Amino acid sequence: MNLRRARASVLAMAKVRTTSCSEFIDYDLPGGAVLHIRRNHEAGELTIGVRDHGERRDVRVTICPSHCIGLGASLTLEDGAEEPLKAALHLGPVTLYFGARGTYGRRHPTHRDIYIEPPGILRRAIAALTGEHKRRKVSVVVDRFDGGMIQGPSISARVVLWDDDSSWERGKSRQWSANLTRLLWGKAAQTENEVIEEREVEVALPEGIYTMRAQLLQRVISWPRWPLVKLYRGVAFHPARMLVPQRKSDSLAFEGNRTGTSIVDGNSIRAGVANLIASVLRDREAYGGPNWRAKPTELYKDSHNLALAWATRPDGATDNHAVCARLLHGEDLGVLVPPGGRPRRHDSETSPYVVSFSRNPIDGGVHVMRGGVAPTVIVDGEIVEWSARVWPDSRVNIGGHELIAYYSPIGPAPTSVQLPLVETHQPAEDAARDVAEVAATLDTSVPSVDEVGPPMDADTSWSEPPASPAWTMPAVEELGELVDPGPGSDPMPPSTPAPGPSGKWNGD
């Protein structure tokens, strides 16, 4: 009980702040110092430090899991950096980081070479040690890193002896590195990605269900002087158009790479679907908060633009962009390629020679559409028959002109329906197929009289139609609402009363 009271008393004196992935705790210490503790739940980091109230002097230690298995230590001195003294101790799967910063000092407002208040002892010492080079590092580290399906596993050794590790010059730099795996086992040989299984899947997220094509990929990595091989499996999804917030940015991004493909670890497609959902939700919570949802972005100056830049700027072009204009939901950006000319913006919607770009109402992505007589359009090597998805950095060839598309997704339209999220590239063919499927399911047999209509009452006869209702001013259905035409409109004749039910089946 006494321990509980003591703990409650300590917590009462602490200042606690929380974010979506971190927790900050500050304790006031005697002498005007502050003990600060930070727990980063996303990265699994714990930082403990001591600073003054002015936050001019700070010493901290951070322990966190390593991105690779490493052994060694490093010391870095950098004059003018926020933390001029940094050190690291690599202990297998765990790494300890140490950092310290002192006071910068204050310069004279007009004579910048004169200090009113000189820098602290730490910064003066580091400036004297580094001299004109400003940065010096001593490091000896051996680590094992697994690059996955791209590079495979490797063991490397790096040595830096009192040198600037941010630059390298042959014959002068005191930096050495060696790939021990390659020296001992030989150069690795990799096979191409082999498709083990491929099928269409549905990925469920809070905003809806995404239909994608999933491929189970396999790659084998081997070494000449090692008897065993390394087998990697992953699952590729396309099109991965799930929206995620970007770190330290107000713009949105699509999950995966810039071509609309997302590759996650997984020994099966089912495991890949689970890992994909976990990856999307993890990024949304880490960079947008626990309650982040895809919504339309605010209209910034350039964030809603679609730019079609020259892959190779032609002679005589006055700008790097062939077309650059704002593209919002419900708007079209037309591009016309005149005979013997270059692509340019065309605002007329009546020309059949125009290639049109539009926003997807679900995710704010970009689609390109062409008519039958429009110039040939090729997106990322695929010829566009009717419509195709355009991704950021996609190569778009219009009439033989190679362009690169630059844009940011702007989220769903304010009134867009979130379900379903199935894209239709050939609406005419798809509609015809749907009609055929529905027609095949219709029952065209003639039912008996007993199967038609409700049972008759004794006093009811079908031979007499019901009385016609009194005629009133009709309403006009417009955009889902009933609107009175108002005075001055031409009156419509009374509607013909509907005939009463007959005893003959009419096929409805």
Distance between the amino and carboxyl termini: 78 Å
Number of helices: 6
Mean pLDDT: 81
Helix content: 10-25%
Give the name of the CATH architecture of the domain at 305-427.
Sandwich
Shape: globular
- Derived from helix and strand composition plus strand pairing, the structural class reads mainly beta
Poorly predicted spans? 451-508
Q: Number of DSSP strands?
A: 31
Rg estimate, integer Å: 34 Å
The largest pleated sheet is described as: 9 strands, antiparallel
Q: Report the CATH C-level class of the domain at 305-427.
A: Mainly Beta
Strand residues, percent: 35-45%
CATH fold title of the domain at 305-427: Tumour Suppressor Smad4
In short:
The chain has helices at residues 2-13, 121-130, 148-151, 180-185, 269-288, 427-441; strands at residues 15-18, 22-28, 33-40, 45-52, 58-78, 85-101, 106-107, 115-117, 135-146, 153-163, 175-179, 189-190, 194-205, 208-223, 226-238, 243-245, 252-254, 262-265, 305-310, 321-326, 332-336, 344-345, 355-359, 366-369, 377-379, 382-383, 387-390, 395-398, 401-406, 476-478, 481-483. The chain is mainly β and 508 residues long.
